[in-house]
Amino acid sequence: MTVSKLEYLSIVLGGIGLSSILAGSLWAEDGIELKTGISASEFQKEFDQRLRDGFRLVDVSLYTVRRQTAMACIWGKRTDPEFHVQTKLTAPELQKHAQDVQPMGFQLVRVSANAAGSDVRYAGIWEKRKIPVHVRLGYDVKQFEEAHKTLSAAGSQPLHFHVVAVKGQLIYSGIWEDVPEIKRELDQNLSYAAFVKAIPERAAAGFRVLQVCGYPVGRGDRYCCVWEKTSPGEQQVSLRLTEAGLARAITDMQARGLQASRINSYPQGGANRFSVVWEAGTK
């Protein structure tokens, strides 16, 4: 199968390859389901039905379809740990909610943002867990770099990030967690070529992709990536997936039997693009 480099990245590295999901449709494999094109008005109904079916939300990414917010969601058929989800929040509202539920043992583990003009709205997933996290929202690049430097020096590890363009300015949001026994590193502002080059180099040092976040820069795109030092295993990383690329790749993904663990969406070149990390098992 021949696919344009503009539509996805395919690198074999202990199996790093590619594939994905048709936008607006459903893909399921071994208790993991990925669905895109969920409108904000449809989300609550979708969420309630998933809970009844024994699924929980694993990851969420916001994007725009016809000037309306849409969601790409990964659902996992498991109930632990206890979790809850908030959407349509401003940065202050999300930060306040994170502080309010922290005494109850809930920590923010996923964050996504979408911009309509200068109005930025967030979605977040909280899990009941003992590991403390540190949340930073709505930072410019200098603030973000300083936050990462300070938190890393204190021993915190990068967990999840989102970058959104607001009237040409990049807004960063991130989550770090206190897991000193795990080694992670963060790269940002990677070009497509630099990211492709980094994958085998990082793999040689024992690192795999934990999360990748794409975002528009001018007429191109850049990537923010979290690398984790862990045991080798089959993994696929998808970049620049259009709806057509998602459709062509779905057969390949099902044949490999991998599951989506992280999803990210962003506008680039007049279309929505998707970045996905696929694993033999989800994190």
Q: Which strands sit side by side, in order, in the main sheet? A: 1-2-4-3
Tally of domains = 1
Strand content: over 45%
Major pleated sheet:
4 strands, antiparallel
Q: Class by helix and strand content?
A: alpha+beta
Low-confidence stretches: 1-29
State the assembly state of the protein chains: single chain
Number of helix segments?
Answer: 5
Mean pLDDT: 85
Distance between the termini: 29 Å
| Rg, nearest Å | 17 Å
Written as H for each helix and E for each strand, in order along the chain, the element string is EEHEEEHEEEHEEEHEEEHEE
Structure summary, number of beta strands: 16
- Indicate the overall shape: globular
Percentage of residues assigned to helices: 10-25%
Describe it for me?
The chain is an alpha+beta fold and 283 residues long. The protein has one domain (26-279). Helices cover 23% and strands 49% of the residues. The chain has 5 helices and 16 strands. It has helices at 40-52, 91-101, 141-153, 192-204, 243-256; strands spanning 26-29, 32-39, 56-65, 68-76, 83-89, 106-116, 119-128, 133-139, 157-166, 169-177, 184-190, 207-217, 220-229, 235-241, 259-268, 271-279. It has a 4-stranded antiparallel sheet with strand order 1-2-4-3, with helices on one face. Strands 5-7-6 form a 3-stranded antiparallel sheet, covered by helices on one side. A hairpin with a 2-residue loop joins strand 15 (259-268) and strand 16 (271-279). The two termini are 29 Å apart. 44% of the residues are buried. Residues 1-29 have low confidence and may be disordered.
